[in-house]
Write a structure and sequence with these properties.
The protein is of the alpha+beta class and 382 residues long. It has 13 helices and 10 strands. The protein binds flavin-adenine dinucleotide (FAD).
C-alpha cells in the first residue's frame, strides 16, 4: 500500500485508496507477470474492477457511475501502478478515453445501453483517432464518412489503437465535412459493423494491452450512431485529451514510484564489497535524487488535480504536467534498472518492464513536443 499523505486528501480518499490497494495485492500482483506474457487480461477482471468502483467514478449515476472528484482517479491509478504494468492500466481503463464523448451526448440512442454495459465491465470500448498518416495533426485526419441515406459509409484506417482487437464499441474520428478541425465528426462503431476489420500490432511494452490497426472498407453505420452534431467532433476530442493526460501523468508517477521502491529495497538487501550497496555513497545519493524528484512531481500532480476539481485547470496545465511526469519516469526507470544491475535487465523485475514502458507515455495521448506546443500557444507566447 502507498504511504504518502497530502493536505488535499480526505479520510474518504484514503479509505478508497486502501480498498484499491487490497484489490491490487490480492488480485493483480500475484498474476500480472502471467497476464503480461499472455498479452491479455482475464475477462473476469473487468467486472471485479467495476464492482470495486474503479470504472464508475465521475460518471453520471443514471449510467452506473457515481460522483467522485479527480483525486479518486489519480489515487487508484497510482495504487494499481504498484503492480508495475502500464499495460494493465491502459487495457483496464480504455473506456475512460472512449466513452466520455458519448456520455456528453445526452440524446444519443445508444448512450444508456453502451455506457452502462461498459461501466459495469460487461463490454469494452476503444478510442480511434490516430491514422497511419499521423497522430499529432488531429485536425488533418483522412478517414472519411459519406452520407448514404440513413447510413454513413466509412473508408480509411486507424492505427496504434488501444484495445483495438478486443473492444465491443469504437469511438471513431472521421471526416464528414471539409478540411481542418471543422470537418471532423465522431461516430460510434460496433465491432460487428459490416466492412470493419482489425489486425493486431506487436510492441515494445504494454504487453497485456492489445493494440491494433483498424480498417474501414465501405463500413456502414447508422447516422444515429454519430456522437454530437455533424462536424462538431473536434471539441469533444480535445476535451477528452485532458482527462487522458491526467491519467497518463498519474500512471507515469505511479510507475516511477514503484520502481524507485523496488530499487530502494534492492539497495538495502544487495551486498557488494561486504556491505549493502546503499552503503556506497553513489547509490544512496542516486536514490535521494530520485526521491526528491518524485516528491516534487507528486506535489505538482496533486496541485493540478486540485485545479481540475475546482474547474480551474487549463489545457496548458495538463500538457505541462504530462511532460513533467513522463520526464520523471524517463529519468527514474533507467536509474532503477542500473541500481538493480543484471536483475534489472531480467523479466521478473518491475524495473525491466517499466523501462520498456517509458517511451509510450511521452508519445501516447499527445507527444512531448505537441504538449509543449500546446502549452506555449495557450500561454499566448506566439
Ligand atoms: C501503445 C500505444 C497506444 C496508443 N493508443 C491509442 C489509442 O487508443 N487511440 C488513438 O487514437 N491513438 C493511440 N495511440 C497513438 C498516439 O496517440 C500517437 O502515436 C501520437 O499521438 C503520435 O502520433 P504519431 O505516432 O502518428 O506521430 P507523428 O504525429 O507522426 O509524430 C512523429 C514525431 O514528430 C513530432 N512532431 C509532429 N508534429 C510536430 C510539431 N508540430 N512540432 C514538433 N514536433 C512534432 C512528434 O512529437 C513525434 O516525435 C497510441 C500509441 C501507442 C504507441
Amino acid at each position: 500500500m502507498s504511504s504518502y499523505s497530502s493536505i488535499y486528501l480526505t479520510a474518504e480518499h484514503l479509505a478508497f485508496r486502501d480498498s484499491v490497494a487490497r484489490f491490487v495485492d490480492e488480485q493483480i500482483i500475484p498474476n500480472i507477470n502471467q497476464w503480461e506474457e499472455d498479452g491479455r487480461l482475464p475477462p473476469s477482471l473487468y467486472k471485479q474492477a467495476a464492482e470495486l468502483g474503479l470504472f464508475g467514478m465521475g460518471y453520471p449515476e443514471e449510467l452506473g457511475g457515481y460522483e467522485a472528484d479527480p483525486f479518486y482517479k489519480v489515487l487508484s491509478t497510482i495504487e494499481i501502478a504498484r503492480a508495475g504494468s502500464g499495460g494493465l492500466l491502459a487495457n483496464l481503463f480504455t473506456q475512460d478515453i472512449a466513452i466520455p464523448p458519448l456520455v456528453l451526448d445526452k440524446q444519443h440512442p445508444l448512450r444508456e445501453s453502451v455506457c452502462t454495459a461498459v461501466l459495469t465491465g460487461e463490454q469494452r470500448a476503444a478510442l480511434a483517432i490516430t491514422e497511419p498518416s499521423g497522430g499529432s495533426d488531429v485536425a488533418n485526419i483522412q478517414t472519411r464518412a459519406k452520407l448514404d441515406g440513413d447510413h454513413y459509409v466509412i473508408n480509411g484506417s486507424k492505427t496504434f489503437i488501444t484495445s483495438g482487437m478486443d473492444a465491443d464499441w469504437y469511438t471513431v474520428a472521421v471526416r464528414t465535412g471539409g478540411g481542418g478541425a471543422a470537418g471532423v465528426s465522431l461516430i460510434l462503431v460496433p465491432r460487428d459493423a459490416p466492412g470493419f476489420t482489425r489486425t493486431p500490432l506487436k510492441k515494445m511494452g504494454w504487453w497485456c494491452s492489445d493494440t491494433a490497426t483498424l480498417y474501414f472498407d465501405d463500413c456502414r453505420v447508422p447516422v444515429a450512431n454519430r456522437i454530437g452534431p455533424e462536424n462538431a467532433g473536434f471539441p469533444f476530442i480535445m476535451q477528452n485529451f485532458n482527462s487522458e493526460r491526467l491519467g497518463l501523468a498519474a500512471q507515469a508517477w505511479g510507475l516511477a514510484n514503484t520502481v524507485f521502491e523496488e530499487a530502494l529495497d534492492w539497495a538495502q538487501q544487495r551486498q557488494t564489497f561486504g556491505k549493502p550497496i546503499i552503503h556506497h555513497q553513489v547509490v544512496r545519493h542516486k536514490l535521494t535524487d530520485m526521491r526528491a524528484r518524485l516528491d516534487a512531481t507528486r506535489a505538482y500532480l496533486f496541485e493540478v488535480t486540485w485545479l481540475i476539481a475546482e474547474n480551474k485547470a487549463k489545457p496548458a496545465d495538463l500538457a505541462q504536467l504530462k511532460n513533467q511526469c513522463t520526464d520523471l519516469i524517463e529519468y527514474i526507470a533507467p536509474e532503477a534498472v542500473q541500481i538493480l544491475g543484471g536483475a534489472g535487465y531480467m523479466r521478473e523485475t518491475k524495473a525491466e518492464r517499466v523501462f520498456r514502458e517509458t517511451k509510450v507515455l511521452s508519445i501516447g495521448g499527445g507527444t512531448r513536443e505537441i504538449m509543449n506546443e500546446l502549452a506555449a500557444r495557450q500561454h499566448g507566447w506566439l
